[in-house]
Structures are given as structure tokens and as C-alpha cells.
Amino acid sequence: MTLLEMSVYYADSAALIRTRMAELRAAARAETDPEAAHRLRLRIETLRPLLRESRELAVLTARYYDRSYHKHEKYTL
Asked: Per residue in 23-61, pLDDT tens?
């Protein structure tokens, strides 16, 4: 599997995470129990770094071999 092919999977994962976060936000707004709403918000906060990293890796793997692309410092050795 090439990095370009991997980028599609990272982008798909980011889309799934974004969708799940939207579902959890809607559930938290509709929740009447404050404790349950708080737990839903904590789940959203847990997913936030995964979404960011999936997006970053999708871009990095898609453009890794582009000479003009300035790679993300977080993922370079």
C-alpha cells in the first residue's frame, strides 16, 4: 500500500470521527441528565485529538512526495 492510498483511509477515518462527534453533540444537547451530558462531552473531547491527527496524516501521506510540500514538523524525524 502506498502513502497516497493510505491518505484515503485517514481521510475516511476523519470523516467517520467527525460524524460521530456531531452525533454525540446532538445527543448531549438532547440529554436531560447533566451527568450523562457531561459524559457525552468527555467522549467528544476524547475524539478531538484523533480527528486532528487523522486530518494531519491524511494531508501528510497524500503530499509526502511533493517537493513543494512543507511537511508537518510533528511527523518528521
From this structure: 999 999 999 999 999 999 999 999 999 999 999 999 988
Instruction: Give the type of residue at 57.
Output: L
- Counting Cβ atoms within 10 Å, is residue 50 exposed (0-12), middle (13-18) or buried (19+)? middle
Q: Which long-range contacts (CB under 8 A, 24 or more apart) does 18-27 make?
A: 18/51, 20/47, 21/47, 21/48, 21/51
pTM: 0.85
Query: Using CA atoms, how far apart are residues 40 and 46, in angstroms rounded to an integer?
Result: 10
Q: Cell numbers at residue 2, please?
A: 502506498
DSSP, residue by residue, 17-44: HHHHHHHHHHHHHH---HHHHHHHHHHH
Question: Cell 452525533 maps to which residue?
Answer: 23
How many Cβ atoms sit within 10 Å of the Cβ of residue 19? Answer: 10
